Amino acid sequence: MAEHVAATAEPSRANLALGLAITGVVVWIALIATDHDGPLWLLQPVLGAAAAITGWRAGGGGAPRGRALVAVVVGGLLFAMFAAFIIAEIAS
Asked: Domain range spanning residue 66?
């Protein structure tokens, strides 16, 4: 019974992770398009980290595959872009 529950939970987590990653990209594009300079930029790393963590957990103990892998990569990139921006701002 426990195997059945775990097997059906993985696609749901992968879909959630992919949804978070897509939402993060949409928020990023919207903030760039509106040239916004405010605290809403904090949504980018939060959504990116949430997508990456959820995608990694969807792997079920192994490496993520399929949709979960896409979410880990996109979420990681969203978080890394924000971190690079902060480091560049501090350095200048």
From this structure: 2-91
Per-residue pLDDT in tens (0 to 9) along the chain, 92 residues: 455 555 555 578 889 999 999 999 999 999 999 988 888 889 999 999 999 999 998 877 777 888 999 999 999 999 999 999 999 999 98
Structural domains in the chain (count): 1
The vertex-40 CA angle with 19 and 55, nearest 5°, equals 25
Residue 78 DSSP symbol: H
Supply 65's token pair.
């595959």
- Contact indicator for 21, 75 with CB cutoff of 8 Å: yes
